[in-house]
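Q: Here's a chain of 987 amino acids. Please give me its 3D structure as tokens.
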Amino acid sequence: MSLDEALLRQIIALRSLPFDVIFGLTWLLTLFDWIWIALAIFALRDGRRGQWVAASVITALVIATVLVDFLLKPGFARARPFTTFPEIGPYLIPTVSTKSFPSGDVAGAFAAVAAFTAFRPWWSLPLYGFGGLVAIERIYFGVHYPSDVLGGAVIGFVCGRLAVELVRFARTRVPWRAIVVPHTHWDREWYETVAGYRPRLLAAVDGVVAELERPGGVDRFTFDGQTVALEDYLGDRPDMSARIDALVRAGKLLIGPWYVLSDLILVHAESTLRNMEEGLRLAALHGRAMRVGYVADPFGHPAQMPQILRGFGYRSYVFARGLGDEGEALGSEFEWQAPSGDRVLALHLVGHYDNALWLIRDSHHVEEADPEMQRRLRRELPRLLARETPYAHSDVLLLMVGTDHTPITPELLPALRQAKELRPRLATTIGTLEDAVAAYPPMTLPVHSREMIEGRYRHILRAVNSTRMWIKQENAACERLLLRWLEPFAALSGSVTREELRPLWRTLLQCHPHDSICGCSIDAVHEIDMRARFATVRSTGDALRERLLGEGGAGEVAWSSTAFPRAAVVADGTGPRFARFDGLGAAALDAAAPESDVRSTAEGVLDNGRLRVEVAPDGSFYVEGPGGRTGPHNVLLDEGDRGDEYTYSYSGPPVRSAGRGGERETRVHPLRGEVAVRLSLPVPAALRPDRRARDERIVDLGIETVIRLDADADRVEITTTIDNRARDHRLRAIFATGRAARSHVAGEQFAWVRRPNRIAPKAGWAEQPPDTAHVQDFVAISDAVGGVVVTADGLPEYAVLGDGREIALTLLRCVGFLSRGDLPERRGHAGPQLETPGAQLQGRWSMRYAVIPLASESALASAARSAREFHEPPLLGRGRPGTRLALETDGAVELSALRPGHAPNTVVLRLANPSPAEASARARFMTPMRILRTTDLREGQDDLGANGLDVIRTAAPLEQLPDGRLEARLQPYEIGTWLLEREEIRT
């Protein structure tokens, strides 16, 4: 008995009523191929993209039918099994008269599946599984041998993929409308400083102006979506201002809407608003801002960006990085939905923002025309169309001609004429992103409703969250100074205007471009230029804060920038002092007493009646509080890092602090208890010369940790100071949650975002998804009975390990190269391979972070407020006690901004609800306020940007309560902005 016959009889032996039903239904579904035709029809719901899928499926079925029924079956003429072995059938289904090899049903099934899944790979498992069921069904009913179905499967797969290639060939030759956008992406500082790039900037913009003014020249150019580079240019070429303005007003030169091309993930949400506000303001001075929310190259996009865009009147967003496998389903055009439900048209530059430049430029000489341009065009145009057309939902293609620091390309015009000869049905028009958005026909698009921080198509480079950590700490301190001190107290006092604060914001925003705030530039950019900017904001802002807070009197008080009631311990030269605040303002010191004092019952133990902390000699600790006992917390883990400024790359061996003996000292005051631990952690000094592992040489990291518990506090605060003498490593603090969960919550820009705990490797991605992520406010692991929240001051990188059992907070990441091309986590370089010894962070560094025990997930709003209080510690100063603004809420509403308005005597109030539940808040001002109106994020300046965009997104109006309070009602994840007027000053 042959193997073929043996397998046939084994499968036939399974005949029973359940299998009869299963395989009978399978036979009915595949009768006349109607299920595969239905699959093709189903694909048509995706519009033009679906047409290519449907055409591929039908073409695959036709090819398989012709090949099998008219060529192979007659050629092999193999008898059916039931003819050779009459005792086995035919069984249940009608007798078939055609020959046996190969199976036509199986060939058709695998042809259709191979064609469909070439476009929709996420359907592979169920569809190939059903194809396998079809194959077994043909054997089960006795109409085919196993070799028949195996041959049919192979032949069908080949037919399916052949059909895909035929359709791809046809797709590049059908009519297309291409909007060709000449542009440049200008990194203000990166592998050179601002001053280093300046000569190239002057030459590039000179060329742009000359070409746009030349009769018959390229008549459209997009200047990167930012205005700061143009501001730099006009600083050196003020005489060119009138010519620039004329081009902007004529629609030939598009500028804005941003001031800088910020990393949208690392900066505060309000900084993103200030960035667009400043960009729109400057663009309007030259004529108007671009009407498309274009961002060339940030390393990811926060979930609430659609609501932010609509708050400035924008309905579209063009971007180049951030999508994962979902990009295959979404295509190059989709609707991006914020957690609030706001949507914008999102245009994904699948081939990046330089997708069409390579038709006419060589990647090694991007500033020069290619002398072999015609040959290049013949080679690259088919590749471009093959890459871009599968993702298009309509007949419109967006072709971007430009890249980093490229000038205008006059040779574009003859290149497009040559392209017309090569592809007569490709209609090309030089235009702008506005032209592209206008060209898309009305169509139903797929919806994406998550943040975009993945790297299937392009590197996402999110290890920048921990590169040069001092930059993140400085930026957080400067943002807090502006947002929580200067703007609110300026608004409430009326003595400092919005314009007086603008220079500080502009200086800080110049630290926010992605290559700057991310820490992925050369040392001079960070150590010289950025340090100076941060220092300017700090020194000028501190002086202004002292002036604002000192206006109310000469008595000693404590100042709080938190609008909600709080109790706090403030330390001065004489020791801890206690203050109780009703909201934002000043409170008398020692005028109230805590509910219970801090005490210690043993060395390393602190107890304030709400929490009990037990600190070990290695600096780790356990906490007893709401939700039970958790820990150990603050176990240090040091790992080798063979990566670069963009990407972490593991190198062993790891070193843990657990169990190592240190010097422990317990200091207790009724208002504050502290346990100080001094520890020496021996770690490898650096990588080996071959960079494959860590060196055998050992150096000691001197670590000083202070674990603090204040009276009435619901959190444990930690300050860790590290004397870093090692290189090429990452140091993290590990917090054991005692919980297992599938997901966790991270406090991000205007939203609490839920993220999965398991991160799986991805085949074929440009960069593997890292296990680390970014956080703005806090990370929470919780369930119905308890949990743990970790929050940190200017430490934005974390990881959730072991299905939620641990939270890892990055303290330091030390590397020595801007980019490397030998990392397994990423394909190729992310920048030039330059040494960056400053990124090794040698010396002493201090970090603040805290642990907040949770009673249950329902207590997250309270924990989020505690995290906010940790980020905004009160200050000692002079003044008169009094609450300037008091907020109360029945949910998770936060004070996002309180700042002077555009008009004299006006105040802008912005509240945000980051949670999935509707919430309300009530505000009481010391100075009576009159409600003017609800506004969008332009804060009453509806013509900001002079781009004619309508007001399309506002929250519900405020309500004036009988007791004078102002009540706001916010939908889930909603941002509300209102204009108020100080009645006292108006009168």
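Q: Can you summarize the key feature?
A: The chain has a mean pLDDT of 94.
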